[in-house]
Amino acid sequence: MRPLFLCAGAAFVWASVAGGQIGPLDPHLNWQAWDQGQAERAENALVPPEAFDLPQPFEGLSGGAGSIRADESRDVFSEPSANMGFDRLMDFQLGNALFRKLWVASPASTKASDGLGPLYNSRSCQDCHIRDGRGMMPEAGQVPMALLVRLGMVGDGVLPGAPVPPHPVLGYQVQTFAAPGLQAEAVVGLEWAEESVRLGDGTTVSLRRPLVSVTGAEGAALSARLAPQMIGLGLLEAIPMLVLAERVDPDDADGNGISGRLNMVWSAAHQQMLPGRFGWKAGRATLADQTASALFGDMGLSNPLVPLPQGDCTAAQKDCLALPNGQEAGVRDGLEVDQTSFDLINFYSRNLAVPRRRGEGDAQVLQGKALFNAIGCVDCHRPAYVTHALPDQPEQSFQLIWPYSDLLLHDMGPGLADDLPEGLAMGSEWRTAPLWGLGLTAQVSGQFTLLHDGRARSILEAVLWHGGEAQGPRDAVVSMPAEDRAALLKFLESL
Ligand code: HEC
Ligand code: HEC
């Protein structure tokens, strides 16, 4: 792929994807305002210089002025941005109620809450994003809920950027539940293969690799994805596109072994190709696109961007297509999730606050931060950005934030690879996971379920799974003295 060509100062951004041209972008999308290209660069020049052995100004405020104090509560990921005006809190609460709402299958007496399915993975957003944190791994014998299985027919290969054909019967995703009168479309099996890694100091760490199977999905490539945490997403959406593009280095021109790429994906919200930011392979460009696909694919609910009431029922699933839905002619826009509710869910998703850091001035944390830099973790887990000035989104506007991600795709090697491309992301490519909130994961979720399929049960396990472009930094963690590793982990826990 040719590198993204960005013309700062002109009102066009042209990107070359799979040989075709896309653009120009709509100048009213202020968070991408390319004609402010110079301003964006200037904003990001305000990021304090990387000083890895010292506390940096404002680095404790991971989510900028919207950061909240991290208390010991399990609900620490469920707070609104601290800089939210009182007049907007009501919308946050309404969005929260919709995020928690339990949908029911049609027909039902509760008209405002029906339309679930007919095939679905869960009845509410919250059941997967538990306390706005990660999903729970299914116990042995349990029907998976927060661990989704996507599928596609890869056959002899799919051209980069070309859509992967869905499975002819199961569609794009395996729904593990069904409305009354219908059987769930497939059974997902999950087993674990254990392996172990010996560290330089002689200790061994055991790793588990998921072995996922789906009945009736012969010939399809499978990708298991666990629901991620929900904090700071509006801030990630507000990072200037040009600033993300600055790190794109598909041919590793700077020779550091790291060749990040932007995923380019179709945005139904903006009717154009845009850089992907959300999902484990950066398959969605905006929170609205992500919400729409969750409503459609995970819960079978029609919404302003995907107005299809039968969810992921395929033409082969006639009994599924024949079941009633929750569309109501003449009632507002008739959709199962109308525009007002849709906007409130997005407002909520945009405003879940990032907790501030703990102990960022501690000597061991600083030692760990210096190591994080020295061994090259920082080449993908980029620390800081300044977000766009956004007059209509004061909470996200012009904030210095510390997500520790470049939001780019990286080849993470065969150990983490699935076989399912998504947009430009190939089977072994994943979006650098933001690391803010990492140290609070177990407090919120009761356990660690890190990486895209939740296989890692600790921060160290997550690091040991790194391969491909991250092989060097991972090997450095294996061979470093135990004391250094403890410092690195202490730093990661402070995020
Ligand atoms: C069945 C479980 C499930 C349900 C229900 C669900 N999600 Fe998700 N969510 C996921 C998974 C899995 C991912 C990762 C998807 C991917 O990698 O493409 C995700 C990703 C996301 C992301 C992107 C986060 C990031 O860091 O990139 C957002 C935002 C989100 N979901 C919001 C919602 C909203 C809003 C709802 C309700 C309308 C919802 N989800 C319902 C499982 C679920
Ligand atoms: C080549 C880019 C790259 C480098 C270098 C890199 N990472 Fe990552 N990191 C990623 C990607 C991509 C993921 C998500 C992988 C997945 O989910 O399969 C990730 C995930 C993680 C996670 C799990 C986060 C979560 O939410 O589940 C941790 C912890 C982490 N990295 C720490 C580190 C540390 C520590 C280093 C240095 C030793 C490092 N990474 C180096 C790209 C990188």
Automatic annotation (TrEMBL):
It comes from Neogemmobacter tilapiae. Keywords: Heme, Iron, Metal-binding. Residues 363-495 form the Cytochrome c domain. It holds the Pfam family DHOR. PROSITE patterns: CYTC. InterPro entries: Cyt_c-like_dom, Cyt_c-like_dom_sf, Cytochrome_c_Peroxidase/MauG, DHOR. SUPFAM superfamilies: Cytochrome c (SSF46626). The keyword Metal-binding applies. The keyword Iron applies. GO terms for molecular function: cytochrome-c peroxidase activity; electron transfer activity; heme binding; metal ion binding. This is Thiol oxidoreductase.
